[in-house]
Amino acid sequence: MDGNSREKLFACIEATSFVCDELRLFLDTHPTDRAALDYWTKVSKVRNEAVHEYTKCYGPIEAYRVEVDNRWTWVDEPWPWEGRC
Amino acid sequence: MWSYEKRLQHPVNITERNPRLAQVIMSQFGGPDGELAASMRYLSQRYSMPNRKVAGLLTDIGTEELAHMEMVSAIVHQLTRDLTPAEILEGGFEKYYVDHTLGLWPQSAGGIPNSATFFQSKGDPITDLVEDMAAEQKARTTYDNILRLVHDQEVCDPIKFLREREIVHFQRFGEALRMIQDELDSRNFYAINPAFPADFTK
User: Fold this and answer.
1) A84 is a domain residue
2) Which residues in A have their CB inside 8 Å of a CB on B?
3) Rounded CA gap, A17 and A21, in Å?
4) Predicted local confidence at residue B192, as pLDDT
5) Residue in B179, B82, B88, B172 with CA at minimum distance from that of residue B136
6) CB of B52 less than 8 A from some CB of A
7) A85 in a domain, yes or no?
8) CATH code (residue B86)
9) What ipTM was assigned to the predicted interfaces of this complex?
């Protein structure tokens, strides 16, 4: 995959994660809201697939999801506060 | 970004109330060598840590300290749950109770509120890592002090777990310090801040 698809995949993780963050708050106080539940099911599935794909291709973004081959990759890629440069 | 898991790092199941002990253990929530200050110390320091592996270590230990804060809070909560006014007075808990009822508030055993003055983030990797090693030892000593006062196995067990983690963190920070030292400029080994290498001799 090229840099463009990496950025797209990461943007997808950011967007679906935020939708989940927002839905979580609403569902905490409206645990049987059908529309919100359906939205959660749809978005969290997309998020899981995106995270899985990103982790496989570019490395882990979550410490429990490090996939080990011959090396611990958790500390290889830049930390998010380093910014793009 | 963080996400929460609905579990403690090590289980806390305390069946017998003990407000006097709660007030002592509370220090590891909000006291000078407590878990809250520990987490804020490491999570604040990581931005100026030039080595990516050590920045990762600060992230992961800083995250684990949040989980330790949760364990200590759970211990205090279970030791004070459903206290009666008589138990509050007998256990010397009235001074805490009057301001916080049975809620959790980060303070030391002596009532001093939690403060960022409990830690440093100096922007110098060597300075910060030496502080971190000292902080782990101070927290370990505090857990030793607590263990001398605890006779309830249900309280002892999670406190012992937390004490052991201080030792592991001390070891890892020692390795981190050595990694940073290995990368230093040998011509200016003792004077340089590797995160701010300005020529201050001019």
Assistant:
1) no
2) 17, 62-63, 74-76, 78-81
3) 6
4) 73
5) B172
6) yes
7) no
8) 1.20.1260.10
9) 0.91
What is the per-residue pLDDT across B97-156, written as a single tens digit (0 to 9) for each? Answer: 999 999 999 999 999 999 999 999 999 999 999 999 999 999 999 999 999 999 999 999
Tens-place pLDDT, residues B22-74: 999 999 999 999 999 999 999 999 999 999 999 999 999 999 999 999 999 99
| B74, part of any domain | yes
3-state SS class at B113: strand
> What 8-state DSSP symbol labels residue A80?
G
Amino acid residing at B79? L
Residue ranges making up the domain that contains B90: 19-183
pLDDT greater than 60 at residue B200: no
**Token pair for residue B34?**
């407590």
The whole-angstrom distance between A34's CA and the closest CA on chain B is 24
Instruction: Suggest the residue from A23, A79, A81, A82 to mutate for an interface test with chain B (most B CBs closer than 10 A).
Output: A79
Q: Residues B180, B129: contact at Cβ < 8 Å?
A: yes
Most B CBs within 10 Å, among A75, A81, A82, to test the B interface: A75
